[in-house]
Amino acid sequence: MKKAGITIENVHLAFGDTEVLKGVNLDIQPGEFFAFLGPSGSGKSTLLRAIAGFGPTPKGRILIGDRDVVGLDPWKRNVGMVFQSYALWPHMSVRDNVAFGLKERKVPSAQIKTKVDAALELVDLAHLADRMPNQLSGGQQQRIALARTVVVEPDVLLLDEPLSNLDASLRVHMRRELLRLQRQLGLTTIFVTHDQEEANTTCDRMAVLDGGVIQQVGSPLELYDRPENLFVANFLGTANILEGKVEVDGNERRFVTNTGDQLSLPEGSTGEGGNIVLRPQNISISRTQAADSLPGTVQHSEFLGSQIRYLVSAGGTEIVVDQSHRAGHDWIETGADVHLVANTQSAVVL
Questions:
Q1: Which residues, other chains included, contact 25 with Cβ-Cβ below 8 Å and sequence gap of 6+?
Q2: pLDDT digits (tens, 9 = 90+) for 115-171
Q3: Which residues contact 5 (CB under 8 A, 6 or more apart)?
Q4: CATH code at 246?
Q5: Which PROSITE patterns would you find in this protein's record (predicted)?
Q6: Residue 1: inside a domain, yes or no?
C-alpha cells in the first residue's frame, strides 16, 4: 500500500446559506491513524466527504500526497471509503462484493482472484467467500466492507462511523481489528466518530471539531490532559470546571474561586483565565481539613466496580470525584461533610 499524507488548506463549505466548514486547516501524516471527533453537526462527516469527493465542492485546497483533489470526481482520487451502512451489494456473494471495484477497474481475472483471496485472508473471512451478505453478522459485514475497500489499494482509507451499527461488545473487538488492519497495511486512515473512547483507543492523533471549526489537534493524551478551551475539556471525558481568577504573589500563583476558596498552582504553571479544569481522578476526598482543600458535602455516590463516583457540592459548584475502590475501604455516606484535595499539578487554567 502507498502512504500519502493529506493537507487541508483553508477549506470552507456551505449548504445553501449555512456554512458547515469554516476555514479548516490540517496536516495528516503518511501512514497516520487520524480521527475526526465531535458532536452531531460539528462538520466531521462533511469534512471526510469533502476529502472523498462527495457533496458540494468546497473552497480551498485538499491535497492527497502532492495532488489537489478539489473538483475531481470521487473515483479519480484513489481513496477508499467505508460507510456507516457498509453498502454491500445484497445480490452478490462475499467474493463478488470484494471483487467489484477491481472489475470496474478492468483488472485481469487472474489478478482479481489473487487480490480478493489476499483481502479475505487479511480480514480472516476467506471461509465465507461464497456466502451472501444477509448470511453474515454485522461484524462480518463490516470486515467485508473493509476488504472491498482495501483490495483496490487506495492512497487513503476513510471510515465514516463504521462501528455505530454494532453492539457495544462487538464495537470493542472491531476497533481492535481496525487498528490491527491499519498497522499491518500502514495505510493513512481517517476515522470519523462522535465516540471519544473509539478515538482514544485507535488513533495516533485527532482533531476535535465544533461548529465547523477545528478546536484542537493532538494525541488523545494531549487533548485530555491539556485541553486548549472549555469545549475540548468538556467533550473529552468528565471535567470539573471552577470559576474564579488567578492571583500572583511574588513567585506564588494560586487560583481563587468565586466563593473565596484557594488552590495553589504549581511553579511554572501558565494560564491567566477565569476557569480551572480538574479531572475527577485528580481529586481525593479527605474527612479532615487539609492545605489547599475545598470544603464540601457529598450529594450522591455511584458504585462503578473499580471506582466509586461521588458528586460533591464544593467551591460553588457540583464536583465529580472518582475514587478507586478496594475491598474494606469505607464508603462515604451521602450528606457527609468532606474536604476535596486537588492535584493541581494536573490542573489546567483556561
A1: 8, 9, 10, 11, 214
A2: 899 888 888 888 989 999 999 888 888 888 888 888 888 999 999 887 777 777 777
A3: 27, 28, 29, 30, 32, 63, 64, 65, 188
A4: 2.40.50.140
A5: ABC_TRANSPORTER_1 (PS00211), ABC_TRANSPORTER_2 (PS50893)
A6: no
